[in-house]
Amino acid sequence: MVVATFVLWHKRFGDAQCLDDTIPFVSNTYQYMTNQKRFLERATDALKNNNIIKFYLGPMTVYMVAGTRNVQAMFRQSDNLSSEIMMVHLVLPRVYGLTKAEVARWERDKTGRLETPAPGTESHPKDQRYFFTLEHIYSQYLKPKRHANLLMETYFRSFSQKLDMLPIGTWVDVNMFDLCKRDMTQSAMTALIGPSIFELNPDFIDTFWEFDSIIVFLFTGLPSWLNPRPRRVQQRYFSMVRKYLDYAWANFDRNGPTATADWEPYFGARVARELNMWFRDTGLCEQSAAGFLGTLLFAENGNSVPIATWGMMEIIRDPSLFEAVREEVIQASTADPVTGARVIDAQKLISSPLLQSVYTEILRLHMSFNPTRQVTKPFKMDGYTLKKGAMVQAPMHVAHYDEAVWSVDGHSASQFWAERHVKYIETKDQSGKSIRKPEFAMAGRPSSYFPYGGGTSLCAGRNFAKGEIIMTLGLLVSKFDIEFVAWTQLDGSPSDRAAQNDGRWAGAAAMPPDREMKLRWKRLW
Ligand code: HEM
């Protein structure tokens, strides 16, 4: 009764409840920047009693929201919330490394991402509508199924070729996470930007994963004198991308027949080429173009690779799941009667119920990103007035682990359960015999599941990512007999437990496994 009266009083008079802050304005800020995992645990507890809480990040007010209506409101297109301001103030200068003058050009663009400029901005020059043009290139050349499928095919060809170099019938020791980090990443990058970046920079993959490990620090904006490593790694990584761009421009013929090809070796897929041509035409300096492209490579691999690794780890540790997944691959493929080599029907595999369920589970449990918007006009959410200038975040971790939404039949929300999203339908086969047919059906509310974010900044690569992840799982499970050997620390030393989410990535991206899985495998075809 007392709590209810307190909540009603707060709603009636305005502001959301504050998250405890031992030293006001300092403790929460420090924990948010240095231990996001613990911060999110505290926020999750607080959000159990209230669908909106408030805290301060330095001088900035931040609202964290949960619950169907609030999450939907946050992703809805509206004049009250913007994702562009954050991009201008945090992402472009800190992560992409754009110069001040370039950031200022993006800042002047208030027209939004939609085709029709935001009201009152109609006179802004069309060739300076940067957010819209970026969105337009993704909408034309990355999001559509046709382009996502082309990327997936190139990825799959390259990844298969790497596996085909292993001898047939011989047991080989493998570290699962390490293999995905190397071979998936190289194949996905080749599909997106072509192969030359690896020829020009032999240690590009290692540098990329080093960049992946410091990107959170770039976001938080800790000054370089306090922590110089992130900036150093960023510069080293972007100069490798820059070297690649210089080479690609020196060899690519913009007026030649490959300028509009689906894929060519210098710039790779059409989306990467269109982006690079636009960077050049719009006067973005070479180092900033490298920042853009380097960050796109992070978007492409920083989530897909750890997520696919989790998928393999779950499948390998459960032999009956391994067999069931292999059976689905057999159903979705044809085999050469002599060599046993399989031709997998990608579209059929991607719509297989069990694999889709596994894919949904691993994204639910391991993706942890806080989609963020900034309040441009005060407005009401869940009875509270959100102040202009404040940030609003919907931490997906809170929604994805909500027991009330995801817990079923004794399988708690925090547990991986491969069949959580499979429903069995009673039907009849051709002979009229009753059969139970599995179908994919999301077990919880869609508004409690948003691994790809939502609204206008919904992940542009999600169609490619889904195909890439499911095809990787299907290929590995059908191509190899696999035996689990041991869990180890990431440096190879023994571990007394299985992998868990590495909390250093909490709130920022997919949380990778904090342990390696050692295994033996034997190629079958
Ligand atoms: C498991 C895989 C992936 C996950 C979970 C994922 C998730 C996300 C999330 C959460 C966002 C931010 C959305 C927001 O701010 O509301 C995002 C943005 C983005 N992602 Fe992905 N992503 C994945 C794979 C990919 C791939 C393979 C690509 C391909 C290049 C890609 C390209 C992008 C781009 C370009 C954006 C920026 C979109 C924009 O601001 O308009 N992502 N992704």
From TrEMBL:
GO terms for molecular function: heme binding; iron ion binding; oxidoreductase activity, acting on paired donors, with incorporation or reduction of molecular oxygen; steroid hydroxylase activity. InterPro entries: CYP450_sterol_14alpha_dmase, Cyt_P450, Cyt_P450_E_grp-I, Cyt_P450_sf. Pfam families: p450. Its cofactor is heme. SUPFAM superfamilies: Cytochrome P450. It comes from the Eukaryota. The keyword Heme applies. Belongs to the cytochrome P450 family. This is Cytochrome P450.
